[in-house]
Structure formats: C-alpha cells, structure tokens
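pinging the channel bc i need a second pair of eyes. not urgent but kinda urgent?? the chain im working w is below, pasted from the shared doc
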Amino acid sequence: MSHGYGLHTAKIIKEADGRLLGVKLGRLCVNNDISATDVAKKFHVTRQTIYNWFMGKTAIRNQNLIVAVQKYIEQLER
C-alpha cells in the first residue's frame, strides 16, 4: 500500500458505506494506487477533505464536484 494508505486507513475505507460516492472513490484510489494528494489536486480540495470523503465522514455536497467525481470514477472503472 504505497501512497500513504496504511492498513488502518485502508480498513476504514473498506468498512465504510460503499453507497457513498466518496467511499467508492476511496476504494478505487486504494485499489489503483492513486494518492490522496493527487486526488486533492485534481478536485482542488485539501487532502483532509479527500480522506473524509474516502472514510465516509463527510459527503460530497457540491453539485459540480459530484459530477466531476462521478466522471473520474467512471474513468477508473474502465
């Protein structure tokens, strides 16, 4: 698990509610070895925001971000 996803973080992401968009994104990033830093830069948010999304602590509320994250997830799933 490179890119800073320790076992504890990966476990939290795995156990979080997979119906949440941010958690789905987190699982894909862990599985595809994409760093939280890279995702934060892509969506112009902080790494803490990304970790909160990944762990299901906060939901993505901005409609523009929701659309952008959905498109990114589609790319990762291909």
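so The chain has one domain: 7-77. and DSSP finds five helices and no strands in the chain. — does that match what u expected or am i reading it wrong
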